[in-house]
Amino acid sequence: MSPPPAKQRPETPPEPKGSRAVDLPGIPALVVGATRGLGLAIAREYLERGKPVRVIARDAKAAIKKFGSFTSAQIVEADASDAEAIAQHARGCGTIVHTASAPLSKWKTHVTPMLEATIEAASKSGCSILYPGNVWNLGTPSGPIDEDHKALPTTRKGAIKQRHEEMLRIAARDKGVRVLIVRAPDYFGPTVRNGLVDRLFGNAVREKPIEVLGELGAKHQWAYVPDLARVCVDLLELGERVGPARIVHFPGHTVDSQQAFAEMIARAAGWTAPKIKSIAWTGVWAGGLVNKDLFELMEQRYLFDEGVFLSSKALPRLLPKFEATPIEQAVAQTVGSYKQELR
After folding, report:
1. How are strands ordered across the β-sheet holding 27-32?
2. Where do the DSSP E strands lie in 49-100?
3. Nearest alpha-carbon partner for 171 in 107, 108, 118
């Protein structure tokens, strides 16, 4: 999805104090929000392919630690909601990878201004946009859904996610911004740390009770983030073959039950007699009285008790050679990353 190369390399923007400045000809992507999760995984995917990236971070010094020996990562400090700063740092890049996010309790006020800034920056710089979608805006369908499914959000955050996709479609139609939306289920992997996966993987490596949100017997779908990052970069490298505004689903792995997934994690951690328990929704509700992020989980209860499951028509056509990491291997690598942190 990269635009045609410029005749002359744009001047590299000045680097703020605490950033790591390197000479980066032909930067394929500016990653906004690359210190964790999918953003960090995409940045590392580019770097492992020998391609430099530029990274926007709130704290440049902290971000530098995340990239370690990857010295071809140019890390700059900026506010993800500052359109002028994003546009400045997007110079010379082909794509803006928009993975900036916020705690659930701040979604309503924080996430939309950041996407608005990315859209404005992309329209000024000529960059395309990669946006990570999820299942929040898809409603509560009874079976697996592909890219043709009409989004019917039933929650507040689902409505925000739907609005974001509409903003991107309008940007593609009215401003000529090339847009790729990759929807995926819940993330896990070596770069993912949050209250959901920490209670699974983090607790398992410490031999603490593994805590599962929702029904233990419910099926659930998971996206192994290194696989998702690989797919995102592969799709971006297809360029115009993807189209001016495309949605692609990444189904990831579907586990037969949350209980089975927790047991798989315990085995990978070497815990032979794991204790696995479901977090009661009454406890989540009670905790939400003092923790706003917990309160925001309540409207997403259906995702853990029943689930929403993706399928894809587009992915096999666009990337017919893609092979997912076997789930046992993905779980083992994630467990290994948690064990590394304990050393």
Report:
1. 73-77, 53-57, 27-32, 93-98, 128-133, 179-183, 245-249
2. 53-57, 73-77, 93-98
3. 118
According to DSSP, residue 181 is labeled: E
Phi/psi of residue 52, nearest 5 degrees? -75, 155
Nearest to 304 by CA among 322, 284, 319: 284
pLDDT band at 69 (very low <50, low <70, confident <90, very high): low
Which pTM does this prediction carry? 0.90
Q: Are 157 and 296 in contact (CB under 8 A)?
A: yes
Give 107's Cβ-side CA count (13 Å radius): 18
DSSP structural state of residue 20: B
- In order of 34, 40, 138, 141, 181, the CA distances from 146 in angstroms are 28, 27, 10, 11, 13
**Angle (CA) 160 40 75, round 5°:** 105
Q: How far is CA 137 from CA 46, 100, 244, in A?
A: 29, 18, 22
Comparing CA positions, the residue from 319, 339, 329 lying closest to residue 248 is 319
- pLDDT score of 4 more than 50: no
